[in-house]
Amino acid sequence: MTAEDLLHAVSQLEAASGLDPWTALMRVLVSKLEDEPLPQSLLPVLIEAQRHWAGEASDLTAAREVVWRFIKAMGPSGTELESPEGRAARALLCVLHAEGDAEARSMTAEWFAAMTSGE
Fold it and tell me: CA 55, 1, 45, 59: dihedral to nearest 10 degrees?
């Protein structure tokens, strides 16, 4: 799915549910992450993100730290991008930020699409 596809889905969700643009983006991305090859050790982080964006506030900073530890354990910076699990971990980071403006939404959608496209 391209960034444009993601942002289109966000617009539809926003209009249908009355969500703010950032929350709508996060809900779309979280739903897409369910199909990604996340390592078992990161599944609790995905569950926490799902709950957070469904309305149960949680500590996204601590969740980001878990993902960063996983990425850093994979090797030198950038090596995680060579594996589906590493790219999925990077995509998971996209849904672990509490807010963002229009530019952040666009950049997040682009990065997420790049990480989940397998390229």
Answer: -40
Which residues, 6+ apart, have CB-to-CB distance to 80 below 8 Å? Answer: 71, 74, 86, 87, 89, 90
Please state, as a whole number, how many other Cβ atoms lie within 10 Å of the Cβ of residue 75.
Answer: 12
Q: How far apart are CA 94 and CA 114, in angstroms?
A: 12
User: CA-CA distance, 100 to 106, in Å (whole number)?
Assistant: 10
Instruction: Scan for tokens 């969740």, then name that residue.
Output: 63
The model's pTM: 0.92
Query: And the tokens for 10?
Result: 């966000």
* Two structure tokens written together for 97: 């930020």
pLDDT in tens, 10-58: 999 999 999 999 999 999 999 999 989 899 999 999 999 999 999 999 8
Q: What is the DSSP letter of 96?
A: -
